[in-house]
Amino acid sequence: MPTYTAPLRDMQFVLHEMLNVESTYKAFPAYQDLDAPTINQILEEAGKFASEVIQPLNQIGDRDGCTRNPDGSVTTPAGFRAAYQSFIEAGWPALACDPAYGGQGLPLLVNAALYEMLNSANQAWAMYPGLSHGAYECLHAHGTPEQKNVYLKKLVSGEWTGTMCLTESHCGTDLGLLKTQATPLPDGSYTITGTKIFISSGDHDLGTNILHLVLARLPGAPEGTKGISLFVVPKFLPNTDGSVGARNAVECGSLEHKMGIHGNSTCVMNFDGAIGTLVGEQHKGLNAMFVMMNSARLGVGMQGLGLTEVAYQNSVTYARDRLQMRSLKGPKAPEKPADPIIVHPDVRRMLLTQRAWAEGGRAFSYWVAQMIDVEINSQDEKEREAVADLVALLTPIVKAFLTDNAFASANEGMQVYGGHGYIAEWGVEQFVRDARINMIYEGTNGIQALDLLGRKVLSDMGAKLRKLGKIVKEFIEEEGVHKQMAEFIDPLADLAKQFEKLTMDLGMKAMMNRDEVGAASVPYLRVAGHLVYAYLFARMAKIALTKQKQKSSDSFYDAKLLTARFYYAKLLPETASQILAVRAGSASLMKMDADLF
Amino acid sequence: MPTYTAPLRDMQFVLHEMLNVESTYKAFPAYQDLDAPTINQILEEAGKFASEVIQPLNQIGDRDGCTRNPDGSVTTPAGFRAAYQSFIEAGWPALACDPAYGGQGLPLLVNAALYEMLNSANQAWAMYPGLSHGAYECLHAHGTPEQKNVYLKKLVSGEWTGTMCLTESHCGTDLGLLKTQATPLPDGSYTITGTKIFISSGDHDLGTNILHLVLARLPGAPEGTKGISLFVVPKFLPNTDGSVGARNAVECGSLEHKMGIHGNSTCVMNFDGAIGTLVGEQHKGLNAMFVMMNSARLGVGMQGLGLTEVAYQNSVTYARDRLQMRSLKGPKAPEKPADPIIVHPDVRRMLLTQRAWAEGGRAFSYWVAQMIDVEINSQDEKEREAVADLVALLTPIVKAFLTDNAFASANEGMQVYGGHGYIAEWGVEQFVRDARINMIYEGTNGIQALDLLGRKVLSDMGAKLRKLGKIVKEFIEEEGVHKQMAEFIDPLADLAKQFEKLTMDLGMKAMMNRDEVGAASVPYLRVAGHLVYAYLFARMAKIALTKQKQKSSDSFYDAKLLTARFYYAKLLPETASQILAVRAGSASLMKMDADLF
Fold first, then answer.
1. Domain A160-290, CATH class in plain words
2. CATH architecture of B161-290
3. Binning pLDDT at 50, 70 and 90, where does residue A489 land?
4. Contacts of B510 in chain A (CB under 8 A)
5. Does A82 touch chain B (CB under 8 A)?
6. Chain A: nearest CA to B569, how far in angstroms?
7. pLDDT > 80? residue A291
8. ipTM of model
9. Is residue B442 annotated as part of the catalytic site, yes or no?
10. Architecture in CATH of A8-142
C-alpha cells in the first residue's frame, strides 16, 4: 500500500531559499505580517492532513468509486465525506480566500503548496475542493455584488462546493459548438436547459449545496464562442438567509466509467429548466470562465506535480527494499541474498527521472503561483502587467509539461516495481491511471501547446516570450562569471539561444503557412518547458553551491546539486530531438490525404 | 466500441514485397509447395476470426475479468470458451507446429502474422493459445520422446494449454533466488512444492488440461541460476491412452487484480507436492526455459504490434468523424459545423506516429520471424549460425522497442479521443492498460536493454552487431547511388556511423566501469531500434518508389512512402537525444547515496 510524506524540506527550499517568500511578500500591504514560520507551520499541518486523512482513502476511492443512487443523488466512497468535514472544520478552503468573505487571505502560493500535497495523497478527493476554489475565483472576479454575498462565504467555508460545466458530448475543445440554452425570466434570472458531460464533482454528498458554473447560449446569441454566456446554477436555490432552499432542476443523469480518478464523481449533468443567474456580461461567458480555466490549468499542473512526488516516494521505498541481482560492480549487500535494486544504474535512472520532474515541477509551479500573487498584490502597474504576461505565457507550459512529466514519472515508478507494479494492491498503477486524465482535461496538452505557440508566443510577435528570455539572460550574465556554474550556464545559454532562433524561424514559417504552428506546437512546448526547468535547476544549483561553500552540513544541498546535474545530463538532452522535430515542419504531416490513413 | 479490420494489404506487402516469402521459402525442403495465395488465404481467414469472434469479446473480458470459483477452478469471461472451441476446431493452434504431432508445418512467420491479428483483437484472450504455443516449442526442443508423445499432440490440437511458471513473490528478474522445490520419486518423476505468482493463463476453462512448465530446485542443487531445473506439471495427470486422469496437486490460490488484460487469468499457483517430470537436464532448466522465453519475447513484441495497429485504426476512425474547430488554413468541411479533427496537424502527428510504429513494427517483427524460419530450415550451417546471431541480437529489441512504441501509440490514440478517450465505453483506455504489461513481463524492457547491450553486443565484442551493420551497410551502398533514395540513405548512413562509434566508445568505457552498461542500456536500445526501423523504412520506401516509377495506381505505395518520410522527419530524431543520454554516462546516476534519494 502506498504511503506519502509531505516533502516539506524541498517545499521550504523553494519557498524560502529560491523564492524568498518572506521578503518578497513584505512589499505587499496584505502580507506585512506574513512570515516563514507561519507558512511552514501551515504546510506541516496540511502535510499531516494529506498523509493521515485523505491518503488512506486513495485506494478505497479507486476500488469502490462513486455510486449514483436511484433518486439521482451521488454517494462518494466511504470516508470521503468525513474527510471533507475535517477539511472544512480546519478551515482549509478559506486559506487563500478574501477575508471579506471569511477567507484567511494567504497567498495563492501557499494554496498551491497545499494542493500539491492533497493531490499527492488523493487526487480524486482533492478535485472536490479544488474545483470549488476555481468557482470561488470566478465568482470573486466576475460575480455581481449579490452573487458574491450569497455564494462566496459558502464556498470559502467549504459548506458549498463548485463545478465547471463546459463540455457537451459533441464539443470539448470547440466550445463554440455548445447548445445548452438559457432563457431569460422576468425577474432577471434565467432557465438553463441542456446536457453537460464529464462534469467533475458534478454531484456528491460532501457539502450541502453545489454551485454549477454553466456555459450556455441566450436566445438570438451570435454563433460560435461570441455567443456564450456564463451562469451560476445552484443545486438548491438559496433562501434569502443563505440557507438551502428548493431543489433546482439539475441532476446527475449518470456517472462516467473512467480509467482512473474513480473517487471523483464525473457526471453527465442534465439541466432541465434549472434556474440560474448571469455571471459577467451576456455573450462574454468564455471571458469570465477563463478565470476559472486558468486557475484550473495551474491546478491540473499541481495534480501532475502531486502524482510525480508520490510516485517517486513509493518507488524509492520499493527500490531500497526489493532485493534482485547483484550490482554489476560486485555485491553491495553481501549479507543479503541479493542487492537492493537501488544499486542498479537503470533503476537510478528511473528514480532520478521522477525526482527531477518533481523538483523541477515544484520550483516551476510555485514560481508561477508567486507571480500570480504579485499580479494581484503589486502596487506597481508595470510590474503587474509584466508578471501577468509571464503568467499567461507560462500557464500552458505548467499544465502540459508537468502533466506529461507526471505520466512519465508514474510509469517509471511502475517500471521500478516490475510485475508488482501492474497489480492493483500495490497502488502504483493507480498513479498511472489517475495521471493520465491530467494530460486531457482543462484543454488537452495539444491544445495547451497551440495556446502557447499560437496565442501566447506568435500573436504578439514574441513580446511575452522576450520577458521570459530577459529573466533567463540576466541570470546567465550574472552567473556566467562564476566558473563553478559553467556546467549549468553553458548549456542553459546554448538552449536559450537555440530557442530564440527556433521561435523566430517558426514565426517566419507560420506567416507563410498556418499549419506550421500546429505541426510544431507540441515539440515546441517541450523545448519551452526544458528552458524553464534548465533555468530553475541552475538557480537551485547556485543556492546549493553557495550553501556548500558556506560549509553547510545539510546533505539536502548535495542531493539538490546532484539532481540538477542529473537533469542536465539525462533529461535536458530531450531538447535536441524536439528541436529537430519542430524544424522538420508540417510537410510530412499534411501531405497524406485523409482517406489514405 | 472499438472495431478491428486486419491490415491485410500491409501484411501482404511485408510478406511478399519486402520479405519475398514465396521465393525465399522455396529453398527449404519443408516449404516447396508454399505459395503466396495460400498464405493470403490463411491470413484472410485469421483476420475474420480475429475481427468477428474474439474482438467482440475484448471489452467484455476487460469489464468482467475472470472468476475464481469456490472449488479453486477459474472461469473465463463469457464467450471466451466458445471462441476457443472455434479456434481449435479451425485448427489454428496447429498452424506452425510439427506435422509429426498433427501440426500444419507452416512457417513461424505466418504464425506471427496470426498472432498480430489475435492481439489486435483481444490480447487477453490471445495469451491463452500464445502461451500454449510457447510450451509446445519448449517441449518440442527439450522434451523426452515420451513427453513429446504424450503432450505435443494435445498442445497442437489445442485441447490442452500451457503456462510458464517462473516468478515467485521475491524473484522475477533474479530467478537465481527461486525456492520452489522438486523432490525425486522412485519412478523417475518428481514432486513439486512451492508458490508461483503472476502466472498468465494459470487456470481456466478453455481446454481440458493445463501443462505447467515450472522452474524448481532439486535437493542439493547449486545456489543461483545454475541450480534450477525445468519440469512439466500437468493439471490432470495423463492416462496412458492420452486421456485426462487424476487431478494433480496444483491449484490457483487466487487471481491477481491487475491494471489490464483482465480477460486473462493471472494466477497465484500453489504446487503442493504436484507430480511432474524433468524437461531437459538437471540444473539446466533455465537453458531449456529460454526457448520458451525467447519465443515469448517475440510474442510480447507481437502483442505490442497488435495493440499499436488497433489503437491506430480506431483513432483514425474517430479523427475522421469528430468535428471540432476549423483548419488553421480555413474551413475544410464548410458544410459542417466544424472540420473533422483529422485536418489538424497535431492530430495528424499523433495518427502518423501510431501508423509509423505499426508499419515499422510489422516489418521488423516479421523480418525476425522469417530469420527464425531460416534458422530452423536452412540447409546451410553458416547461414543458420548467422541468422541465429541476428535473432539473438534483435529479440530484445523486438520485445522492448515494439512494446514501448505500442504504449506510446495507445496513449497517442487516447489523446486523439480527448475526454472520450478516458471513458471506458470507448474502449481505447483499455488499449493503454493492456499495452502497459507488455513493457514489464517476459523480462522488463530495462532487462531487455541490459540483455542487448551487455550480453548480445559487448560480450562478443560486437560480433553479432557487425552482422546487422553489414546488412545495413550493404543496403546503403546499393541504394546510395540512387538519387531518389538520398532522403533516406543519407540519414540512415549517418545514424549507422554514429551508432558504430557509440558502441565502440561504450565498449571502452564499460571495460573501465561496469556501471556504464546499465547507465546506457535503455537509451542505447532506443537508438538500436531506430537503426533497424530506419533501415526497414528505407527498404519499404525503395519498393514504393519503384512501384510509383512503374506507374502503379495503387495509392498504398503513396501512403507507404509518406509514412516513411514522416518516420524520418518526426520519429527518427529521437536518436539525437538518446545518443546524448548514452554519452552522458553513469556519473550523474551513481553519485547520489541511496539514503539521499
1. mainly beta
2. Beta Barrel (2.40)
3. very high
4. none
5. no
6. 6
7. no
8. 0.97
9. yes
10. Orthogonal Bundle (1.10)
